[in-house]
Amino acid sequence: MDNLIIDRLVKKYDKHTALNDVSLEITPGMYGLLGPNGAGKTTLMRVLTTLLPATEGEIRLGSVSWKQADDVRRITGYLPQKFALYKHIRVEEVLDHVAVLKGVGDRRREIETILEQVNLTEHRKKKMGQLSGGMVRRVGIAQALLGDPRLVVVDEPTAGLDPEERIRFRRLLRSLGRDKIVLISTHIVEDIEATCDRAAILHKGRLVEQGSIDRLGGLATGKVWVLTVPQQDFYEVAEAYDVIASHRLGDRYRLRILADTPPPGAVCAAPTLEDGYLYAMRRDAS
Ligand SMILES: Nc1ncnc2c1ncn2[C@@H]1O[C@H](COP(=O)(O)OP(=O)(O)OP(=O)(O)O)[C@@H](O)[C@H]1O
């Protein structure tokens, strides 16, 4: 299986540079794209799905070049951030419609297989307006999978889902990456941690870091501290240090702190992906 090669990609909107010299090699499997609002994630996804042309740079997947948009569309599936459809259309009609647009050969068989895969077979006759948020996202994934794409692009996969739906949708995403490149863009670190093997971090249009989830978490090794303080000391500590999480334990707070040197009384903690992400963002901003 080929890697997706993104080579010195630049995307400008008039004078604003939304993607600035981004180079990435993305291996098959689940790949995360992390970054705060405005980092350029949606822009990158739109360029990858040919909705926007690149200003400079090249993208290739095997013999397919992004200079030939028609070829790219044949091998890509996309679940946009706002996947809204007519409320009166049935699930199977939505899929049939997309299958026609994608030129799928045996539509009936492929739709059946995909409905099974996303666990919607029993809801196939329901109208879109009758579905929960999680089910709508599953229809979104189903339509992205039609035509057996080599690259599937998913923007903000769990936005608007309740916690249970989120967990179920993550499990579904996890099952997709066996024979495809599945690119997931989000600012929710847990989505990436739960679904991806590797990830890249974007900030202000630039690539800040990339690598395995372990490597990205490891960026914060020796920089994460846990400190338990009485309630009344909370604000003082929060002013002096970069507190990235806090949990209340009775009348005390357990604080997670990002710092190069240990705060007095703090214990060093093993970093998570979120710690590595925050560390990389702070480092990039300074
Ligand atoms: N059509 C446009 N015209 C001008 N500037 C734009 C346009 N679309 C996006 N931008 C700008 O480009 C930058 C990147 O936006 P983009 O939507 O790609 O970021 P993002 O990481 O997806 O953020 P979000 O999670 O908020 O969607 C932002 O500064 C944004 O304001």
UniProtKB/TrEMBL annotation:
Domain (ABC transporter) ranges: 4-229
Name listed for the protein in its UniProt record: ABC transporter ATP-binding protein
Family per record: Belongs to the ABC transporter superfamily.
Organism, as annotated: Tumebacillus lacus
Source taxon at top rank: Bacteria
Stored InterPro entries: AAA+_ATPase, ABC_transporter-like_ATP-bd, P-loop_NTPase
GO molecular function: ATP binding
Pfam families: ABC_tran
SUPFAM superfamilies found in the cross-reference section: P-loop containing nucleoside triphosphate hydrolases
CDD domains reported in the protein's UniProt record: ABC_drug_resistance_like
Alphabetical UniProt keywords: ATP-binding, Nucleotide-binding, Transport
